[in-house]
Amino acid sequence: MTTLDMSTPGELRLTLRGEAENAILSTLRRWPYWLRVELEHDLTDTAQCVAVTLITGRNQEATLREILRRSFGLAFPPEGGDLTLRPAPEPRSRRRGFAARPS
Q: What does the pLDDT look like over 12-60, one tens digit per residue?
């Protein structure tokens, strides 16, 4: 689940939970406007990270929303909230050449 939280004044928090959100993290992790990152670890296995929260300034809201919408189809309401990332569609197989014709 992906959460866009705007409850902290002056900050925009993007929380990514679960394996499906790894694609978002891979895309956004090197974005230069992150102010800080917070990690949430599993209580039983501290080596396992269960959530990553990326924090930026509110002045980056429009850009972040556009990246999430265009790249991942996530259109958050104006007040933020939770959305589930839809799985990527299966790639269609492309047949090349001519198909064998029955005799």
A: 999 999 888 989 999 999 999 999 999 999 899 888 889 999 999 999 9
Quick check: 68 and 48 in contact, CB under 8 A?
no
How far CA 43 is from CA of 17, 31, 64, 70, in Å, comes to: 15, 29, 30, 35
Cβ–Cβ under 8 Å, residues 19 and 96: no
Q: Which residue has the tokens 């928090």?
A: 13
Q: Which CATH number belongs to the domain containing residue 16 in this structure?
A: 3.30.70
Whole-structure pTM value: 0.80
Domain contains 41: yes
Question: Into how many domains does the chain fold?
Answer: 1
Q: What is the DSSP string of 36-58?
A: EEEEEE-SS-TTSEEEEEEEEEG
